[in-house]
Amino acid sequence: MNLDAQHPLATGLTADSRLIRAYQGTRPDKTPVWFMRQAGRSLPEYRSLRVGTRMLDACLEPEMASEITLQPVRRHNVDAGILFSDIVIPLKLVGVDVEIVAGMGPVLGKAVRTKKDVAELTALDPSVLDTTLAPIRAAVARTVAELGSTPLIGFAGAPFTLAAYLVEGGPSKDHIHARTLMHADPDAWAELMAWTAEVTGRFLRAQVLAGASAAQLFDSWAGALSLDDYTRFVAPASTAAIAHVRDLTYDEVPAGTDAADAASVRRNVPVVHFGVGTGELLKEMHNVGADVVGVDYRVPLDEANRRLGGLVPVQGNIDPALLAAPWPVLEAHVLDVLERGRTAPAHVLNLGHGVPPMTDPNVLTRLVSFVHEVTAATPAA
Ligand code: CP3
User: Which UniProt keywords apply (predicted)?
Assistant: First the structure.
């Protein structure tokens, strides 16, 4: 389906941005940079705005969600905004009892452990999202109106990461109940994953239709899985989730041609797939229908590129721990990441996971200008 004519990709506003060009596999004038969790507790302006408002309430208040999304873009000169929201928002909006506990993460009123629990959960109708996602659409619309030519990234949790919270009932280190369920009751597991894929897929699609120029699926906890379990029990649902945005296209008129020539190129909305500790799964995570693979800090980008067959744009992978190291140490690491990233068809610089809350925001600002400067000076061969 073609995006609305007013969508920033369709109007051309964001279609030629560094981020979108890199996601399409070409190398723009400078390497684009954004940070996972660029919005949030590292910013004093975020902390003061959030006083008195609970996390999930802030996500559902379009004016606040939009303002929080814009804060890091104004401050750091990053090449993209990412919607301030959370992966559990669509669960909450279909009626799941979930809250976010500060310093912990999502906590469920009741863990989903048995076939009966799965049946109760999946009785919740995903089509209510058509109306309950209205505040998210409003937040996206407000944000893209402010962002202009800077693309907004929409995101969602991958089915496994969401199912891990649902089955565990909260954060977990080893996700043992989720991993037990997939083997102990594969039918209940498949039903849970299919439902979760639909809920999270609709959340992602709503953001793109409302104006986001790219989509990122976070499978933060997929690193807990063996390649075999990932392929059998998880990849089909991730494919289904991504399918909710895979059909979205826009027509681009190549620079220098007249729109009336009708020599336009049909393009799809780029999809990024990211996980933590997923070095063994990179190829499969690409195969579920992603255009770009996000790499955590454990696998160097040249090795990630090799595992991906040398054809896939990569995103990553500054070690967040080094943000607090002396600048020369961080600088050397950034140069190393950029150099390894040059082996891939295209590279978007990011962290290997989210910005730690105690990060000095001035370090992030400096990092963005350093990457822009140094990559402008040394264009790829
Ligand atoms: O990247 C961004 O700037 C966009 C915002 C964003 C948030 N959550 C806001 C948030 C994104 C992309 C997410 C995704 C998310 N949420 C993931 C996948 C990415 C990842 O980090 O692996 C996961 C696993 C969650 C679940 C979740 N929500 C966790 C683990 C936490 C942290 C809990 C804590 O206090 O440490 C949250 C809450 C949350 N989501 C915060 C933010 C800014 C912190 C809320 C606060 O200010 O107290």
Answer: Cytoplasm, Decarboxylase, Lyase, Porphyrin biosynthesis
